[in-house]
């Protein structure tokens, strides 16, 4: 029989782990003067620069109400440029500034710091990431199957 004890709940374990990891990122990212959500935006842009805001939001699972203020702060910090598309004034292209590109070098060691703090080597990180992806896909598929049409 399933237990309703707090310590037996997956949701509480996930919540506790998420809070711990996010708190660690907060400390690690101080040197870059980035918040965790800003770091996620920068990671996406370091991977593939010159992105439409809507595409960036889709990749990061962030709505425009959350993403727009993040981009404004990154722009004010001189890390990104935002330009409206000539053919569609509603579409905004985001690209890294030279300062934003240079910040990547300073961020290079962050994944190793996080992996070490988690007690994971490169293979352990890859396995954890694969398991988290599988978990996310499974939960999303279950939720979508139960959603009214």
TrEMBL record:
One Pfam short name: Staph_reg_Sar_Rot
SUPFAM superfamilies in the record: Winged helix' DNA-binding domain
Alphabetic keyword roster: Cytoplasm, DNA-binding, Transcription, Transcription regulation
Record domain HTH marR-type: where: 7-137
Lineage: Bacteria, Bacillati, Actinomycetota, Actinomycetes, Pseudonocardiales
Predominant cellular place of this UniProt entry's protein: cytoplasm
Localization terms from the record: Cytoplasm
Residue ranges the record marks as coiled coil: none
PROSITE patterns: HTH_MARR_2
Name by which UniProt lists this protein: MarR family transcriptional regulator
InterPro entries reported in the protein's UniProt record: HTH_MarR-typ (IPR000835), MarR/SlyA-like (IPR039422), Transc_reg_Sar_Rot_HTH (IPR055166), WH-like_DNA-bd_sf (IPR036388), WH_DNA-bd_sf (IPR036390)
């Amino acid at each position: 029989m399933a237990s309703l004890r707090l310590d037996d709940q997956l949701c509480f374990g996930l919540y506790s782990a998420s809070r711990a990891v996010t708190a660690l990122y907060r400390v690690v990212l101080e040197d870059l003067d980035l918040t965790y959500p800003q770091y996620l935006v920068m990671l996406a842009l370091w991977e593939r620069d010159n992105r439409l805001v809507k595409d960036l939001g889709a990749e990061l699972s962030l709505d425009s109400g959350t993403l727009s203020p993040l981009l404004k702060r990154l722009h004010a910090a001189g890390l990104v440029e935002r330009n409206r598309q000539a053919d569609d004034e509603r579409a905004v292209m985001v690209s890294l500034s030279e300062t934003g590109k240079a910040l990547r070098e300073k961020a290079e060691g962050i994944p190793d710091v996080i992996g070490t703090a988690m007690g994971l080597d490169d293979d352990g990180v890859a396995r954890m990431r694969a398991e988290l992806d599988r978990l996310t896909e499974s939960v999303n598929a279950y939720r979508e199957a139960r959603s009214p049409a």
